[in-house]
Specification:
By secondary structure, this protein is α+β, with helices and mostly antiparallel strands. Helices cover 46% and strands 15% of the residues. It folds into 3 domains: 3-166, Deoxyribonuclease I, Chain A (4-Layer Sandwich), CATH 3.60.10; 180-300, no CATH class; 302-333, no CATH class. The protein contains 14 helices and 10 strands.
């Protein structure tokens, strides 16, 4: 399935519509995302009517700025998720497999671009095994992407940080992480039990399959929490402004309980990312946890590194290659020989009894005790499962 993303910069004149029509006829894309159409929904539908075999969904322009449209071929199965003036989000069905497509339009105003990056991060928090994000971000990752003019370094840094967060910067894939807010969620335990009861795999492969299935399972995420909070707060505000009938009072109490639960989930989410584990949750420290999480991510992000020749290397692959080369060199053995004289002067400190303990087989009780001594939210292993997963399930 092929997709096409275009920045139209006004689609109202006949020449632009003719160019779009010819391009679609030549490429025959299954899906098309258009940004800066500068058209209303009714105007965009007239354009779509001239494209045989396609239908569209539109987001109105604000005056004569912005405007989005998503076109699909009639034979493509699409399910709408959400949209705003800056994005359109869909589930795509292809040969029995569902994947997610987001058309994104970054703010053209520099002072508002940080809001675009926050929106992009919120969209990325919705767990999905396959996600494609296309569109016009109105920003570049590196200065060499710009032929003419210049771009402030802080602007590119902010975009790179957002791209790395969502896993679409330089081909970086977002790592799976078991979330604390999933514990107790309907469906999480069922998903794990269903995988674990399939006894055709060894332990490590079963844990890996748990991670894959949890990615597919739509558990709580920060963007979903924020959407639910906003919707329930609006409803609660409406109830507070109207007469308090018995039915309204009951609904108001229910909404207040649900809002409290969502606020608790949001706080847990950001506490896990902040690694500020000495500070207890339940005290509405969400803003503090969020700030600490951002500080920690910025501190741990290596933007460039200097190699042994004094050359500065930028980009994920260059930094990775330089770091691996450095540590491979200092930890590699030169394979020296004739150790006997050196070792003759070293007194042995490990007795036979101690050596026997070190070489003994691990017992299940020892593993269980060590596991329960670990902090539930400390750094997870390569499989994305922290101690909380093993302690709970």
């Amino acid at each position: 399935m092929n997709c096409l993303s275009l920045k139209c910069r006004r689609l109202g004149n006949p020449d632009a519509v003719c160019g779009l029509r010819n391009l679609i006829r030549r490429e025959a894309p299954a899906l098309v995302f258009l940004s800066e159409t500068k058209l209303s929904s009714s105007e965009m539908r007239k354009v779509t009517a001239s494209l045989e075999g396609y239908c569209s969904m539109e987001v109105d322009s604000v005056g004569r700025s912005g405007g989005l449209a998503f076109l699909r071929r009639d034979d493509v199965r699409v399910s709408f998720r959400s949209a705003s003036v800056h994005y359109m989000d869909f589930d795509i069905g292809e040969e029995g497999v569902m994947w997610r497509l987001t058309g994104f339009y970054g703010s053209p105003m520099v002072q508002d671009r940080y809001l675009s990056w926050q929106l992009l991060k919120n969209l990325a928090e919705e767990n999905y095994s396959s996600w494609l994000c296309i569109g016009d971000f109105n920003e570049i990752l590196y200065a060499n992407e710009m032929k003419d003019g210049s771009r402030a370094q802080w602007q590119m840094n902010n975009f790179r940080e957002a791209a790395m967060f969502v896993g679409c910067g330089e081909g970086v894939r977002r790592e799976f992480r078991f979330e604390q807010i999933w514990v107790g969620e309907a469906g999480c335990e069922d998903t794990i039990r269903r995988v674990w009861e399939d006894g055709d795999y060894d332990v490590l492969e079963t844990i890996s399959r748990c991670a894959d299935e949890l990615k597919k399972w739509k558990g709580a995420s920060t963007s979903k929490i924020l959407r639910d909070l906003n919707r329930k707060r609006k409803r609660l505000s409406w109830l507070n402004e109207n007469e308090r009938f018995i039915v309204n009072v009951k609904e108001r109490r229910r909404l207040m309980g649900e809002i409290t639960h969502l606020l608790r989930q949001e706080e847990m989410f950001w506490r896990q990312r902040s690694r500020t584990l000495w500070l207890k949750d339940r005290d509405r420290n969400t803003k503090y946890f969020h700030r600490k999480a951002r500080q920690r991510k910025n501190k741990n992000n290596i933007k460039h590194i200097m190699d042994s020749q004094g050359t500065t290397c930028e980009g994920v692959e260059a930094v990775k290659t330089t770091a691996v080369g450095f540590f491979s060199l200092i930890f590699a053995s030169s394979r020296p020989e004739q150790f006997d004289e050196l070792l003759d002067g070293v007194r042995g400190r490990v007795t036979d009894s101690m050596n026997g303990q070190f070489r003994a087989e691990y017992r299940g009780e020892e593993v269980f005790e060590a596991l329960n001594q670990m902090h539930p939210l400390k750094a997870s292993g390569p499989d994305g499962m922290n101690a909380l997963f093993y302690q709970t399930y």
